[in-house]
Amino acid sequence: MPRPPRSPFPLSDVSNGEWCPRPPTDRQRLAARLLAEEAGRRARRLGVSRRDFLRTAAGTATAFMVLNTVHGLDQWGDAAVLPVRREHCNDLAAGHELLEARPFVMDVQTHHVDLTLPYIQPASVVGQIACGLRFLQRDLPCSTEKLELLSQMNYVKEVFVDSETAVGVVSGVPLGTLLPPETMAKTRDLVNQLAGSERALSQAMIDPTAAPGSPTATDSLPHQLALGARAIKCYTGTPAGGWWLDSDVGHGMLEQAHAAGVRLINVHKGFPLGFGPMVDGYVGTRDLPGAARAWPDLTFVAYHSGYFPGQGITQFLADVAPIGRHGNVYAEIGSAFATAFLTAPDQAAHLLGQLLKTLGPKRILWGTDSIWWGSPQWQIDAFKTLVIPPAMREQFGYPPLDKRTKARILGLNAARLYGVNPRQRRCRFPDAIDRAREAQGGFRAERTLRAYGPRTRREFLALLRHEARFG
Fold first, then answer.
1. What is the CATH number of domain 106-116+151-418?
2. What one-character-per-residue DSSP string does 66-81 give?
3. Within its chain, how far is the Cα of 251 from the centroid?
4. Average pLDDT over residues 84-109
């Protein structure tokens, strides 16, 4: 399969290995072709390579313009959901001006792979699983160099050096196989040591169905809290089976969490895992109301907002509507926002409008599922630019996606939940890195323009075959 043209962001689905990506639509394929043409023409006029142009804010603006074009959306004016002018694409300074807002960004869903584990080697089954999350060089076998793209250091570069992310949460993955709790804590400490301030937090990965003594079993919670975890991450649908938050299994976990002083419970909802039958049901959200009522002093965060590709968040909205804007259920938009945006920018506007209408601006958290989607900067840029036009607000009853609301979603809401002071001065990375980055043109200049998850059904099924062998 030929390598797709470089772009500031992927133009079709990227899976984190938990759900099957949909094939690119005709419009997405057209967008890739048009972007290559538009970017090539502007790069030649500016005397730079197409890849270097696509790294700039003007390159991102050009990609936004192409998305508007292929989806028949207005480029500018009251009806535009992704407003961009031609000068933002043609002029580097104007492009920078479009995206120059620098709000506090706290990303509550970031991941990488622990390559120090003895069972993650190019020839091992788990190494093949990890390589399955990196398909851009399809003609190359699994290699140490390929695995390094998922490493701790590349994670630091993609998330913290090459984006505006101020604080990131190292989030758990199913069973902790690719990212054990101890590694999550080590990555958090490495980032904070490099930064000279608190720029990373970590979660406790808990599976209440795991055998006692297992690395992510409920009885591991005291150990993970001793490592510095600030919250719990769990999956109600896993390779080992399914369970519900409002079942005896779920209440048992929540009781132990409560007794240990944990008040923040993050749970994967939506994006059905590709690990076996019956999982689709268990990643639904019908258990959230019962758990929220039973544990009113716990806060529940539905990762991915209960998003199902092709269906959206209809069931999640119905389940949490009775809880409302002042309840103890939040929505995290990792992969949901990216998938909706790439389906069509107006779909992302509807996603956010629905969440704002049901939960209000204080119950939505920013997450990107990076590094699977590559550097999170393109998602930050898309969110900063996106608006809910007046006509859409009037027709559907959506609140505005104004500057204050964006600031809350991008970071202030998560900062409140995790006890982070958004006004605290945070040191940058080492001076040498910072000077080099600025000399090369800022955080955009050296972006890899890569994504790291399966892009096709074939790639996803190949990943599942490796996981089945491991299981």
1. 3.20.20.140
2. HHHHHTT--SSSTT-S
3. 28
4. 94
